[in-house]
Every structure is written in C-alpha cells, then in structure tokens.
Amino acid sequence: MNTPVCDFLKTNRKVKNRFYMPGHKGKYPDDITEIDGADVLYKPNGIILESEKIASRIYNSQATFYSVEGASLCVRASVYLVKEICLNHKKNPLILACRNAHSSFISACAISDVDVEWLYGDNQSVLTCNVTPEQLNDALKRTKASAFYLTSPDYLGYMSNIGVFAEICHKNGALFIVDNAHGAYLKFLPTSFHPLDFNADLVIDSAHKTLPCLTGTAYLHVGKNAPVFFKENANGALYLFASTSPSYLLIASLDYFNGQVEKFKKELFKTCNLVSLLKEKLSTIGYSIIGNEPLKLTIYAKSYGYYGYEIAEYLKNYKIIAEFYDNDFITFMISPLNKLKQIKSIEKALTLLPKKEKINVIAPNFVNLKKALSIRKAVFSPYEEILTEHAEGRILSTLTLSCPPAIPIAVSGEKLDENAIKLLKYYKINKVKVVKKI
Length: 438
Prior knowledge:
The protein is an alpha/beta fold and 438 residues long. 37% of the residues lie in helices and 13% in strands. The strands form 3 sheets. Strands 1-7-6-5-4-2-3 form a 7-stranded mixed β-sheet, sandwiched between helices. A 4-stranded antiparallel β-sheet has the order 8-9-11-10. The chain has a two-stranded antiparallel ribbon with strand order 12-13. A hairpin with a 5-residue loop joins β8 (289-290) and β9 (296-300).
C-alpha cells in the first residue's frame, strides 16, 4: 500500500535551509508545516488527498477524512454537518443520543446550537447505556428526530447491534452517527464489526486508541449510502473547528498505518484469541467479566471483593497500569502491540490476588433530569460555583462528571434534583457550576 505523506517527508529531510515554520528549523525533520508539496489538510488536492483515498478504500467508505485533533474534532464536525443538512432540507435539527455520549458531543451541541433528546439504558447505570431497538424506534416516531447518535463500543467494552439500529434509523428517515472511537480496529477482524459495514452514515474512529497511531489521530468516515452532502462538506466542517497548524507527524502516522494494515490484521487475530483466553481464565477463578469488545478487558471488581481502585493499586506492584478504574470497575485496553508476556502478566497478577467476600455497596440509581434550558443557553449563561449540597433545584451550567467513562449525572441546562445530588456526592463531586439566578 502506498504511503505518499511518509514518502514526501522522507524526501524533504534532505532540505537543509529551512526558512519556513516551525522555529526549530529541522531539528525534528518530519515536523513540518503546509509547505509547497506537503498539501493542505482540510483543502487537500495532493499527497494528503491520495492518502485519505487509500484509507477510504481500506475502510470501504464513501470518503474518509483525517483528523489530527482527535475524535473530538470529528464529533464537532459531525454535529455541525447534521445541523446544516437539516437546515438545507427545512428539517428540525434534533438529535437523539444515548446518554453515555462523549463530552465533546455535548460541547458540539452547545457550539452548533443543536437540541438533544436523551435515551437512557434500562439498567439505570451511570456507566453504561444499553438502549434497546424498541426504545429507539419509539423515540424516533415520537420525536421525528433527524439523527441518532450512538456510542459503540462504549468505554467499558459493550458493543451495540449496529445493523439493527441503522435499519431502524433509515426506516424512520433519520441519519445514523456512530461514535466508534474505541473501535477503529473492528474493521480488521476476520469478520468486520465496523459500523461502516452496517450502513452507518457518519462514523468517528479514534485511530490512536486501538491502532498503532500517534495520540490525536482520528478518522471521520462517510458511509457508502450516506447523503453526498457529507462527503462534499466534511472538510469544511472540520476546518471550521480545527487548528490551522496541523501536525504532519500525526498525518504521517495515519498514512504509515495504511501500509501496515495486512500485518496488523494478522497480529490482531492472534491478540484477540489471547484476550479471549485471558477472559476465560479469569472467569474460572471468580472474576466477573463484562462487555463483549474483543480487545477490552473489564472486570466488575466488587464481585471479587475489591473496589476497582484497590485492584489498580495492587497491580502497580507488578508495573501494570490499567486504562480506567473507579469504585466498581477496572478496564484494560489491549492491542496487538502488547507482547504475550505483558498479557500474561495481567493473568498472573490477578490470579495471585485472593478472592474476598462480595462488596454489596452500590451507587444510587441514575435518574432522568428535567431540561430547563437548552445546552447552548446554559453553557453560555453567567454561572457561579456552589457546594453540591446547596445545588438542588438549580440549573447546571457545565459538566460535572467526565464522559467517558461515566454517563453525565447532569447535562448543561438540566435542573438538579435530590437524586442527582446524592449521585454527585457518591462520586465525590463537592462543587458544581450552576446558572446564575437573574
């Protein structure tokens, strides 16, 4: 597979007299700017366009666009594109979204002034949001929403039935956006589980999370059957929110991966088998494994007698650092670049940890809050920070609990009630920003 960006950078290393940005003047030779021949990221017609077309063929998309500002940039662009296509067709730009949406989705809705109706899982969890097809179908018929925004896989490793959701969306005349940030690798399994292969319209992949790419790299994919408007306007949407100084080290990272796909596929197959065996082994000794994502290991720690943070602290003795942990869970993200010895070290350490009596302390139930203001109005209103215990009845200004991994207890514009206060205190959030009373 060709790697036009990497090839250009290799040739450009020979340039010794650099009178262009950046100021280090070639000390880091591949860290260049958009000079002659290097193309322009969001208005490409040369090597970057060629590289993106190769990525599009790999992923079987209508078009694929690079981001060097993470999946968050792609989320902002996607929300903007949905609003624009709705306005062009005189439709209401209302988006249905699972409550475990990334914080960048909420900020995108604030910036683009898009209304959201939230869908909640049936387990009242503050960490997962397993919406059913029936819920989605009913909500689309009731609200006439223009799009559905789904996060799959989620942070803990739950994967949704993308094909069923896509069919429901399109039957109801709604667009389907999938935040697949944790699943860029799903395309390369023996049988692809990537949302593009299940008729999603826009798919956001965070390349750096699961592929051998540098931090900050991501893709925005346009599905084969999506409106051509997305393909024609995606670069403009990305440019609207992006820096005008993109990192060529990150662009080259995406380009380089195009040439490594076949090798990655082979290693991925082996690693998925190793992770599967690891899950089976841990299950047999009493660990509760959750989620169905092939490269993610999430343990419900309390069932083994520990809090998640206690297991994480214990594993530091073995020089093992987990991706995420809290009171309830501990999550490990594994990739083909993890050596067999490293994966085995998780098994060894967890096997040596003695099982204790199950911890029955549970978080207060998640409760749906009433919307008092739009997200945009709440975010851009004057605010004050107050003690959580004094916040009942007040309208939240900005987010109080990171998402992911958590579902936000409250979203900007929602009125905090007694149950929300209990949850905030459970997660040790002692202060909140609320809209000032006028």
